[in-house]
Records
---
Amino acid sequence: MVLLLAIGAFTVLRSDGPPGNLATAFSDAFSNPDSGWGDMYDKTYGYADNKYRMQTSGTTGSVSRWVPKDKVEDIPDPMLATVTVSVEQGPADSTFGLLCRANEDGKKQYMFLVRHDGKGAVLRKVNGDLGTKDLASPDSVPGFDAEGPNKVQVACEGQEKDGPKVRLRLWVNGDKVLDETDTDQPLPNGWVGLQIERGGNAAQQIVADFDDFDMSKIRG
C-alpha cells in the first residue's frame, strides 16, 4: 500500500513533465560532421568537439539552424524536441533555445528562448507581415541550472477541436516553464531548429554548444 501511494504521488508530481510516450523521428549527438547541419565551426555555427556550436557577431544578432530534413512532412506533429545547451560565453540577457513550425526562411516560426542567467524566458511568434508577438514571457525558469548545461525541451502540438490551434510548451531540466495555446491564426507545421540571440549590447556575443538533439512524435 505504501509503495502504491508513493508511485501515485510521484505520478501526480510529474504530471507537468514532458511527454513520455514518444517515437523518435530524428536524433543527433553531433559526433558526425556529415549529419547534415552544416560544416565545421566557422565562428558562426558548425561542429566542434562533438557538439554543435553557434555564435552571434557584431553584425549577426541571432543565429538559427534547422533540422536537416528535406520535407515538412518529415517533421512530426505533435512533436517534442529535446537538446542540451552549454553557454560558453554570453551576457546575462543573451538567450538560447529551440524553434518550431518554421517556414519561409524563418519569416514564420515559434521561438522558445531561455535567458543565459535563468531570469526569464520567452515564447515568441514570428508571423511574417502580421508581425512578431511574445505569447508568454515568464520572469523565472523553474529547473534552470546556473552552472549548466541545461536540457531544453519544447512541445508543439497542432489541434483542430473547436477550431485550429497550437499548444506550445517549454521545460528546462524536466520542469515546466510555460504552457500556452495559440488560437490566433496559428502557424502550420514546419521545421524544428536551434536558436541563439545576443542581448541588448551588440558588442557582447553569445557562444553556445548544443548536444544530444532529438525530435520525436508525441504518441499520446
---
Amino acid sequence: MDDTDIVARLAALGFTLPPAAPPQFVYVPVVLHQGIAYVSGQIPKQGDDVLYTGKVGAEVSQEAAMAAAELCVLNALSQLRLVLGSLARIERVLKLTGFVASAPGFNAQPKVIDAASTLLGQVLGESGRHARSAIGVAELPRNVPVEIEMTLAIRTSLSFT
C-alpha cells in the first residue's frame, strides 16, 4: 500500500488529513529512533482551533468524544506524513494510548478509543491493529476530551513489488 492508497482510503471514509500543526509547547511531534516512531500526544484540533472541549459524560457526549478520537488519529497521521514523507513507511502501529477526560461516573473510555482503533484498522488494514490503553483522566491540555499518542514500527526504505 502506498501513500496515495492510504489517503484514498481516508477519503472513502469521509476523512481528509489536516495540515500538520507545529507544536505550541516545548516538544517534538514525532521522534524517530531505530525504526520506531513515537508520536506525541495529539489533541482534536485543526490548525490552532480546538474543535472539542469538556469532559466526556458531562459537556461532551460519547459520540462526540469518538469523533474527537478520530481527529486525534488524523492529526497523528499528518505529523507522521510530514516527518516520514509518506504514510507508506508505516510498517505497523504497535501501541496506541488514549486519554479521555472523564466526568465522575463515566467509564466507557475503551469505547471512545475504539473509534481511533477502528479508523487505524480501516485505513491501514492488519498493520493498523495494535496494543492499546484507554485511560480516564481528570483533565487534559486545553480542556480537550481526548488525547492520543502512538508508537509505530517504520520501514527504513520503500519497495513496491
---
Amino acid sequence: MGRFNKLAHAVYDCEYHLVWCPKYRFRILTGEVVMLARDIIKQLCEWKKIEILEGNVQRDHIHLVLSIPPKYSVSEMIGFLKGKSAIKMFDWYLDLKKRYWGRHFWAKGYCVSTVGLDEEQIRKYVRWQLKKDKDMDQDKLLK
C-alpha cells in the first residue's frame, strides 16, 4: 500500500503524463524563464497537493508526470496550472506581453495519458480477491 496516497475517504494512485507548450510553439522556455516556469509549477502543485513525480521543461514544451488527487479532474488541473503560471510569467517578464498579446502564454491544447498499474497485475488482484472472498465464505459455513 506504500504506493497509494490517501484522502479523507479515498485511497488512490492517479498518475498522469502531461505535455503542453507555449503558444505558437515558440522556443521561449530558456534561461531565467525556464527557472521561473519550474518554480511556478512547483508552487502551484504544492497549493493543490499535487505530487510531481517527474518533470522536464524543454525550450518549447513541458513534460510532467503528476499524481493528481481524484477530487480534481485532469482538465481542471491543467487549466489551473496553465492559467496561473501564465499570469505569473507575464507579471515577472514584461517583455513576454509584447510577444504574446492578449495575455495568452500557453497554447490551447495539451496531451495527457494515464500512468497506471499493469493490466495483468490488476486482473490477478481481482481474481485473488474473488478467491479470498470465497475462502472467507467457506470458513463461515464451516463454523
---
Amino acid sequence: MRLVLLGAPGSGKGTQASRLKKELGVPHISTGDLLRAAVAAGTPLGRKAKAVMDAGQLVSDDIMLGMLEERLSQADAKTGFILDGYPRNLAQVEALDGLLERLHQPLDAVVKLDVPPEEIVSRTEIRFKAEGRADDDPQVVRKRLDVYAEQTAPVAEWYQRHGMLKAVDGVGELDAVFRRILAALPGDRIAAHG
C-alpha cells in the first residue's frame, strides 16, 4: 500500500499513521522525522538542510525530495509506505508524482482526515496545557491552520480532481477513525488483517 495521509496540523495524522504502519506492514515516513534524522546523521542532504535552517529559512523542495527519494529507495519501502507531511503544496505534488513514476511506485490512495478547525484548536489546547509545546499554543495553531488552508488544501483538491482522494471524518474515538480510514483504502491493497 502506497498512501499519502493529508490533514491539518492536529488532525491526528501521526497517531493514525502509526496504527496504519502496524496494520499495513509498511513504513510511516514523516518528512519532519526524515529531516531531523538527516541533520542529526550529518548526511550530505542533512548538512545542506541544516545550513538553510540555521539561516532561518525553509528547506527547499529539492532537498526534501532528495531525502524522500533516498528513503523510498530503501528496502522496507519497496512494498509500500505511508507519507505524512508531504506533499504540502502543488509543486510538491508534481515532484512526488515524478519521483514515484521514476521509482515505479504509483500511489494507491490519498486519505484526508477532516477535522473542523475549532476541534483542532480544542485538541491542541489540551496538549499545550499538558506538555507546553509552543506549536500547540492556540494562537500558533490558528496561524498554522491558515497556512494549511492556503497551501495544503489545494493539494487535496488536486487529488480529488484526479479521483484519488478519500475524505475521512477525523472526529471521534481513535479506533472509530482508524476503522473509517481502513474502509476508505482500496480493498485489494490491505494486508491480510484487512
